[in-house]
Task: inverse folding
C-alpha cells in the first residue's frame, strides 16, 4: 500500500492523498506537478520515471490514513 507522502520532496508543496497532482517513482519518492515537470518526469533520487500518483478516497483514508511524515529537506 502506498504511504501517500504529504509533500513534495523538492519544494515542500502539499500533496494531499485525496488530490490529483502528485507524481511518484517506483520507490514512492513524491513530487508536485511543477517539480515533476522541471525534473522532466525523472526521479532525481533513483533515476526512475515519475508517474501520476493515484488518489485515495476519503472513505479509504479513514481506514488507511496517508502518512503525515514530511519528506521535504530544503535541499531543492
Result:
Amino acid at each position: 500500500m502506498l504511504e501517500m507522502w504529504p509533500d513534495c520532496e523538492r519544494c515542500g508543496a502539499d500533496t494531499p492523498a485525496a488530490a490529483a497532482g502528485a507524481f511518484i517513482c517506483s520507490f514512492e519518492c513524491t513530487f508536485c506537478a511543477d517539480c515533476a515537470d522541471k525534473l522532466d518526469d525523472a526521479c532525481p533520487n533513483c533515476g526512475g520515471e515519475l508517474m501520476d500518483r493515484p488518489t485515495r478516497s476519503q472513505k479509504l483514508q479513514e481506514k488507511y490514513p496517508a502518512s503525515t511524515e514530511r519528506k521535504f529537506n530544503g535541499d531543492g
